[in-house]
Amino acid sequence: MAANFWASSHSKQLLEQVEVDVVPQLDKDRGVTLDEFKLIKVHMTNYIWRLAQYVKVRQRVVATAVSYFRRVYTRKSMTEYDPPLVAPTCLYLASKAEESTVQARLLVFYIRKLCNDERHKYEIKDILEMEMKLLEALDYYLVVYHPYRPLSQLLQDAGLPDLNHFAWGIVNDTYKMDLILIHPPYMIALACIYITTVLKDKDKISWFEELRVDMNIVKNISLEILDFYDNFRVIPEERIAVALNKLRVKM
Amino acid sequence: MMSLEASNPPHVGGGEEEESLSSKKIVDRYLKGEILGEGTYGVVFKAIDTKTEQVVAIKKIRLGKQKEGLNFTALREIKLLKELHNPNIIELIDAFPYKGGLHLVFEFMESDLEAVIRNRSIILSPADIKSYLQMTLKGLAFCHKKWVIHRDMKPNNLLIGSDGQLKLADFGLARMFGSPDRRFTHQVFARWYRAPELLFGTKQYGAGVDVWAAGCIFAELLLRRPLLQGFSDIDQLGKIFAAFGTPKPSQWPDLVYLPDYVEYQYVPAPPLRTIFPMASDNALDLLSKMFTYDPKSRISAQQALDHRYFSSMPAPTKPALLPRPSPKGGSLNQKPPFDLNEGPAVLSPPRKTRRVILPQREGGLEGILNGADTTTDERIRKLRNTGDTAGQSGKMPMSVDNSALIGSGTAFRPTLNSVDRSYLKRKLDMDPEFEYSQ
């Protein structure tokens, strides 16, 4: 999808960091902190990733699914929209939107395989019901742009096509953050290239300068990615369990 | 498909079901009206948006019996229409789930281009045709700019609003393109509008397939009947080659590499003028560019808009002044008597009375082109004369029955009307909505 990003609904829906980092009131009432809110999102991103490996879909389907997931929680609470159900449903919806449909039956099978928790054993009808709710929550905007394509093009342009694999991995990791909701995809791609050039000791300062983009933003995104690597390298299972249990408190 | 079709009449004065529907408000905003017809995957009904006072068409997609949630086709349409906002593309105003169905709210469209083309009481002047084609191409150029291929261009999917604006609709087959090496299915478009590269099974194609179909629609506006009415994929190619000649390798170098390539017996290209005797030179030039075989050298929608056909006289008619069928439920008083017992959307039978039949059918195209005693022009003039006296509607613009000109497959005349087509389409989609209609 090499379509024009700036004319897309995606570009019009970009948010500020402060708008994304808001714990919905209902979740706040249950004592969920911003850290826990972020933690659950990281955990569920990983879950979508693992499910995707079983049902075998392309990278961009996963990326779209995660984008839907994160977008939903800028508008809805985790209390009302149960993350363990929303996550696979996002994958289901994204697979349709990206034209590589995964059967709900198959998804349900792997959810059962991956989840030991009895409460998370969903039926097909649960997924289909949630699909409708998600469509509404997303206001039916389904087209999402990703940094993968600009990444390859920019690396080609910079004369570093051999670093594609490495940079691609960093792009994958950016989906564990909310960057896709905040920055245009090519800026995220540039940040990933920036980190790559620094780590691989390539001097590309002049190339970056010629691009005429705001390098401050690129550096800020890069710093955020590095921060993430420092803080979220290991996610303790107990903390996830504590956070998810808070959501289940009856009030 | 939310067009109004006479062959799909509303259940007027209907039973209890209609009664209960008519006074129902959906989600406090829409006042439900009569059923307009049935699309590929749901019932379409008229409604009034109480918020804006606007008349809308609501397409209800039933989900109850689906094992796979929201229909894939519907999802495509929603996804793309949310991104495409243009005066020549149907607007998706709203969407909401209600009573086990997803409701899509579109702007209400009075008619469609098929109804215009088929309606014998409508005369299309060259300026009218230019206007309809221009609006079609504008919508198409916009889609292509946004990297969307429509893949189901046909008169029936070009809707006409009360202000005369033509809008592209039914994006259920449309998809985004532009990723190199992505493979698509070639089973798209109604056959008569399918580009030759699709018929030869290509999986990698671009916006050119829409341009070919737009060319077919242009031809249909001129002829008042579909130009290339093949009854199978092979026959479709035969019809194309009979009309435009078998492509030479110099015309289309990649042809032999296409997956389903088969060699066709060489047929030379007859002059386009024989098919479109009434068209202007500029119109013929544009047609030939839209019907260019090699998709790489086929004109783009934007280039077509910049073609001198559109800048030359006559200027395209203003949309509001275009002739169009009277809206559904509107006054029928001015209708000519012969139109009363046949709906404007009936495709096949009424045509025969106004079509000119070639005197020597066996002769086919060769007979016309290589006629020993008469020139083509004389033949055509002769045809026109016969038409004037034989046809009931002398005031209709004359057109030569092209299938009589082309090939020997003339005996077969597809009598697929819109009811049949929506039936087939529904069957193919295995839409549970189908049962609902009975």
Automatic annotation (TrEMBL), chain A:
Domain Cyclin-like, residue spans: 46-136, 149-227
Pfam family, one: Cyclin_N
SUPFAM superfamilies reported for this sequence: Cyclin-like (SSF47954)
Swiss-Prot/TrEMBL keywords: Cell cycle, Cell division, Cyclin
InterPro entries assigned to the protein according to its UniProt record, in alphabetical order: Cyclin-like_dom, Cyclin-like_sf, Cyclin/Ssn8, Cyclin_N
Cell cycle recorded as keyword: yes
GO molecular function ontology, one term from the record: cyclin-dependent protein serine/threonine kinase regulator activity
A GO cellular component annotation in the UniProt record: mediator complex
Superkingdom of the organism of origin: Eukaryota
GO BP terms in the entry: cell division; positive regulation of transcription by RNA polymerase II
SMART domains reported in the protein's UniProt record: CYCLIN (SM00385)
Sequence similarity: Belongs to the cyclin family. Cyclin C subfamily.
Protein name from the UniProt record: Cyclin-C1-1
Organism: Zostera marina (Eelgrass)
From TrEMBL, chain B:
GO molecular function, one term: ATP binding
GO biological process entries: positive regulation of transcription by RNA polymerase II; regulation of cell cycle
Binding of ATP, residues: 36-44, 59-60
Entry annotated with the keyword Kinase: yes
Residues annotated as the enzyme's active site: 152 (proton acceptor)
Classification via InterPro entries: CDK, CDK7, Kinase-like_dom_sf, Prot_kinase_dom, Protein_kinase_ATP_BS, Ser/Thr_kinase_AS
Name of the top EC class for this enzyme: transferase
EC numbers: 2.7.11.22, 2.7.11.23
Domain of life: Eukaryota
Annotated stretches, region: Disordered: 1-20, 316-348
Keywords recorded for this protein, A-Z: ATP-binding, Kinase, Nucleotide-binding, Phosphoprotein, Serine/threonine-protein kinase, Transferase
Gene3D superfamilies: Phosphorylase Kinase, domain 1, Transferase(Phosphotransferase) domain 1
Residues annotated as domain Protein kinase: 30-310
Catalytic activity: L-threonyl-[protein] + ATP = O-phospho-L-threonyl-[protein] + ADP + H(+); L-seryl-[protein] + ATP = O-phospho-L-seryl-[protein] + ADP + H(+); [DNA-directed RNA polymerase] + ATP = phospho-[DNA-directed RNA polymerase] + ADP + H(+)
Family to which the UniProt record says this protein belongs: Belongs to the protein kinase superfamily. CMGC Ser/Thr protein kinase family. CDC2/CDKX subfamily.
PANTHER family per UniProt: CELL DIVISION PROTEIN KINASE, CYCLIN-DEPENDENT KINASE 7
Protein name, as recorded: Cyclin-dependent kinase D-1
